[in-house]
Amino acid sequence: MKRPLKTPQPPGFARRLFGLLAGRAHVDDLLGDMDEWFYENLRHMSLLRARWIYWKQVFSLSFSYALRARRRNASHAALASSSLNTAMLVNYFKVAVRNLYQHKYFSVINAFGLALGMSVSLLLIALFSYVSNYDDFHDRAEDVYAITSIVDKGIEHIEFATAPIALADKMTSEFHAADRVLTIVKEYQTVVTRTQNFAVKTYYTSPEFFDVFSFEFLDGSALALRQPGQVLLTETTARRLFGDEDPMGKTLELSGGALVQVSGVLKDLKKTHLNFDMLMSYPSIVQHSASFEEDWVKFPNQYVYVRMLSDAAIQDLEQYLDAAANRLYTESPAKVSFTVRPLKGLTVGPDLRNDIGEKWEASGFIVFAVFAALILLPACFNYANISVARAMRRAKEIALRKTVGGVRSQIFFQFVTETVLMSIFSLIGAIGIFVLIRREFQSMLVAGASLDLSLTPSLILLFVLFAIVTGVLAGIFPALYFARLNPIDAFKSRVVTKTSIFSVRKVLTIFQFVLSFGFILTLFAINRQYRYAMSFDFGFRKGQIIDVALQDVKREVFDTKFGSLANVETLSHSSGVMAVTVSQAWYHDANRDSVIAAQMYADRNYFSNLELTFVAGQSFPDESFSRESYMIVNEEFLKSRNISPPQAAIGRVYQVDGHDLEVIGVLKNFHYAPLNFPIANFVFRDDPSQYHFANLKVTGGDSYEILSEFETIWKQFPTEKKIIARYFEDEMREGYDTYVVMLKIVGFLGLMAITISLLGMIGMVVYTSQSRTKEVGIRKVMGADVRHMIMLLSGDYMKMLAWAIAIGTPLTVLFLNAMVPRLQHYHASISILDVFLSIVVLLVFGVGTIVLETYKTAVANPATTLRSE
Amino acid sequence: MKHYLGELEELVLLTVAVLGQEAYGVSIQREIEARSDRRITIGGLHSTITRLEEKGLLKSWVGGATAERGGRSKRYYDITPLGKKAVAETRSLRDELWTESGIKLAIK
Questions:
Q1: Are strands A302-308 and A230-234 parallel, antiparallel or unpaired?
Q2: pTM assigned to the model
Q3: d(CA A614, CA A113)
Q4: Are A109 and A763 in contact (CB under 8 A)?
Q5: How many CB atoms within 10 Å of residue A427?
Q6: Does any CB of chain A come closer than 8 Å to the CB of residue B71?
């Protein structure tokens, strides 16, 4: 019985796929069963769900013994040929190789496009496969959990990777389903040697560290962590500090004068979310402070890990933590709750603050995957597109195959084999690109240094699998198309490409160019931001200032030597480098009203040196310093305290860190922080003990000469440390290195996107031009000239480009207008010029390609083209 | 020759017997799912049926098509004498075990 047209049907594609897989086997009853389920399901669920179930059934049956058995039985029948055997596979392979070889031009275009498309995905696969088995190597890794926290302070709601040590102590006595509760305090220590200072990432912890984590010892044992003043080093750190000498038993001096003894060396860390250079015994530092706040609310560098008993349920821990949090924070204004995270999920996971070591956000991977897909899918699509467009040329070949007894599944598999072969061939190119961009890619990642993206056999296997999947993806549509081909039509050259497919094809081509256009415009926009930031008026002087770190040189000694140099105009001191390092503090006024402000210490000359402008008051007084008593604020500070005019602020007193400071001057607003932050409250103070830098304003001489002169003088000081002198401008530029990285990434992706879309375009143009050779010949005989022919052949593609620009411009501008302000608070808006330039670039590439390709056909001599039949 | 039946195999054989004239793919799956309150996949079911057929415990023939199957034919199944024997053997094995363990179970 024929159903009325409107009734929903089971998914035809699934049905055809199943039919194809079944080959000659009799599966009518199975199809009937699935149909029956489908129509029954429709009565009580949505069409989408019913179709989904149909699909699931198709998959279930496809891989079932039932289908295999039926296929086997069918193949015993006469004329059976649907089963895949080696001879057939070899044959597919041969035909595929010959076909690819015969159409070299198209094969190369396709292979190149696929190689480009796959290369970005290879990066993703390599990165993910490397990162995803972090922390697998610990014994009982599956029983280890990290406790993380969510701190709720009114409006602030922040997820931290940390948890209070106090909680761990509580758990040890109250919670018995855990067999180890481990605490770690992370700190940066400085090891002082006679010649150099070394920054050392240090974890304070207890011997249980090695029960929970299985790091290998080269020397010494976990017991060292039982006594105070003992440290364990990693292999690399030991070599950094002692060279080839045996580090065991040696003494290290930490900044602050503490002496510790090396009593063990660990193998270097690999594939773990932990990241430390040195382990130090826990009792040597931690004293519990008395205040609740200190113990339970502020724990920025404390970490808690739990190893559960093998038979314990993790829900017990969760319940315990929920109950504990409820109990503990009833009185406190800040609420904290705790989350349990399995060790395995720590490396790739949600965005937490204050991570203990290396961290890869899952969100980052998703963005990456989207970009990889945006590059890969157009490449696959182009392949499918070109193959189908060339159907006419191959239609006869297929028709002949069918006539002599080839069945659908054979044609299907032959085409899929061809694409898979092609994609594996492309994989070689893709791996080449991968190797080329790997290092650059690693340098862009925050934790890239610890990555090892070298080609291991298992990684290559993954790549090959990926190539096969890509091949099937790109080949399945052309394969289905050819498998359906009617031989009679094909012989009569009546193969029509369905109009619907044509429009889908156009839309997808336009989409590719929209994407390319987006990348080009983004590139221009980011470049504009970068230049904007570089030439931005920060409100202070950037040029000709050299910052020298004082290190352990006395300020007075430094001043006498450097102040007298001919090249040095003026000299001032500060606690940090403006726009690079600032700290924050709470300021209280007489009513105990408090306000948070960024602060920096600087002497009286600093303001004239950096050309900061006073709107009221003056710089710090020039009297010998006895105790801190003055402060200089910015306009924003006044605004937040509702003080105006600026003069009114002079003489007001604020309390900070136990000092009463009087406002002595008000500065015009200036950008003390990178441009992604809006200007907020800022305070200058003048405690000389905080000065770590000298700021020297130099004459505009040769920078190399000046710096080498500085170095010579520095060597006369009684210090073994090396001079650290940087031009202020250079330091600030480094703060905007992210833009350079972004320019690189967007530029690279854009280059990929545009190359792939152009390759796809070339394929299409070549194909249409070739198939219209005769038409062009006739037209030329009738008197048309080359220019008209080019226009005739390229008209459709020009229209597509125009559409791409028409759609791409508003979309990209909208996107950028939403993104740029997030990137940089003070930003340049996208200008018409950027849009115009992007259009020009796209047109130059697009039109150039089209004209070049059509020109060949247009100039062909009609005498030769028309004679060919 | 003795046939050792898997649990699903036994279930399918018995269900086919229960359904009598009306045993085909959909009805068998529906009956099993309704009675045992568990989901089975269509692939799993047909694999089991195929195996039973190969062992000669089930026989099948192609039957009438209906509109709700898109005009496709049904394949009906029936239990063979060998199939009946196999189920019976399985049952007697279980009965034996039940009676012997019954004493211990009764004491509790």
A1: unpaired
A2: 0.65
A3: 60
A4: yes
A5: 25
A6: yes
Find the length of chain A. 869
CB A215 within 8 A of CB A339: no
Contact A512, A756 (CB under 8 A): yes
Q: Decide: helix, strand or coil at residue A389.
A: helix
Whose tokens are 């799912």? That residue is B33
Counting Cα atoms < 13 Å in the Cβ hemisphere of A235 gives 10
Closest residue, chain A, to B43 (C-alpha) = A61
- Which candidate, A583, A599, A607, places its Cα nearest to that of A695? A607
Of B46, B67, B73, the CB nearest to A66: B46
Which of A28, A39, A60 lies at the smallest CB-CB distance from B42? A60
User: pLDDT digit string (tens) for A287-343?
Assistant: 555 566 667 877 888 899 999 888 888 888 888 988 888 888 887 777 888 989 888
Asked if pLDDT for residue A213 goes beyond 80, the answer is: yes
Q: Looking at this protein, which amino acid is placed at residue A295?
A: D
Distance CA A339, CA A150 (A): 8
pLDDT top residue among A167 and A590: A167
Which residues lie closer than 8 Å to A243 by C-beta, 6 or more apart?
Answer: none
Side-chain half-sphere exposure of A407, counting CA atoms within 13 A: 15
Q: Which two tokens stand for residue A689?
A: 């003990």
Helix axes A362-389, A499-534, angle to 10 degrees: 140
Nearest to A83 by CA among A74, A94, A96: A74
What structural domains does chain B harbor?
7-97 (1.10.10.10)
Shortest Cα distance, chain B CAs vs residue A10, angstroms: 10
Q: How far apart are CA A483 and CA A664, in angstroms?
A: 86
Cα separation, A651 vs A666, in Å, equals 11
Is A537 a residue whose pLDDT tops 90? Answer: no
- C-alpha span between A218 and A266 (Å, rounded): 5
**Rounded Cα gap, residues A513 and A757, in angstroms:** 7
Strand partners, A669: none
pLDDT, residue A155, reads 65
For residue A781, give how far its alpha carbon lies from the nearest alpha carbon of chain B (Å): 57
pLDDT, one tens digit per residue, over A758-792 is 888 888 887 777 778 888 888 888 888 888 888 88
Identify residue A466 by its one-letter amino acid code: F
- Under DSSP, the state recorded for A353 is B
Task: Quote ipTM for the complex.
Answer: 0.86
What is the distance between the alpha carbons of residues B72 and B74, in angstroms, rounded to a whole number?
Answer: 7
pLDDT in tens, A513-534: 898 888 888 888 888 888 888 7
Say how far residue B53 (Cα) sits from the centre of its chain: 11
